[in-house]
Amino acid sequence: MSGRDADPARAVIFGCAGPALSDAERAFFAEADPLGFILFARNVETPVQVQRLTRALRDTVGRDDAPILIDQEGGRVARLKPPHWRLPPPAATFGALARRDPAIAGEAARLNGRLIAAELTALGITVDCAPVADLPAPGAHGVIGDRAYGDDPDSIVRLARAMADGLLDGGVLPVLKHIPGHGRARADSHAELPSVDAPRALLEQTDFAPFRALRDLPWAMTAHVRYTAIDPARPATTSAIVIAEIVRRHIGFDGLLLSDDLSMNALAGGLTDRARDALTAGCDIALHCNGRLDEMQAVAAVVPPLAPPAALRLARGEAVRRRGGIDETPGAMLGRLTRLLAAA
Questions:
Q1: Which residues are known to be catalytic?
Q2: Number of independent structural domains in the chain
Q3: The CATH number of the domain where 93 resides is what?
Q4: What is the pLDDT of residues 216-275, one digit of tens each?
Q5: CA-based diameter of the chain, in Å?
Q6: Per-residue model confidence (pLDDT) at position 343
């Protein structure tokens, strides 16, 4: 590590444009000093190429422990895909298995998480934006769909916990999403702002319940969803009311709180306003994913260094990441997972 580690990084995670860094990106990241980075399909081609990219990203900020994130849930939300990587099953596969054999489903979900962790750590990726703990509701938009572990809160909690434990056992930090719940939304927050009009008491009994049960996980990502019974003006990501009263108090989550992507159309205003609003509302980290350099420059200009409470939450997360190694080879784990899924 460099001497730069004494100074707090900027409270933002950025994407990059392609499979290798440009000179302009290297210079920008070195100056902006983001906390970490996130990879998408546009950034991955081969294992060797991804290893080079993760090393290059960390080199720009001079921190060999800078978090590098990816969305590797499984199913349709997986940035690493064949032919170079396994495509993990979607969460709904484990939910369906749980209806027949809950014990086997939990074992399979944990094994899947450990296998994903092995696949990610081999590439230098240390944070997986999973598991999804959203509880789907009838008539909701399909953006969650088979990304959910089912429609039963208890099953969602058991399987999301198993997935998270598997990731942690393999040295990867899980990111619980989308807190406090996206499952009831009737719109895709990538395209527009979903508005949920359910009463607060009902939300606390249903949508918020899985997150409350999983509140001890180290990281979580916000939902770009407006809950009119709690804050009729703002979505959770930019609502100080939702973050203070629901995320921190009712749910009791005290881990590192990451905004969902600032580029999504659910958020109003320009990117600088979105970044300021998310951090002012109580998010610890702003997330900007699309890799556009001009947008990242604008966001970096308004994002401050990581605040002391956020730095403490970051350190606590690192402390629970288990680095003891995996006692099976990836091939053995894959074989066992395949047998579990087939046996059901």
A1: 190, 260
A2: 1
A3: 3.20.20.300
A4: 999 999 999 999 999 999 999 999 999 999 999 999 999 999 999 999 988 999 999 999
A5: 54
A6: 74
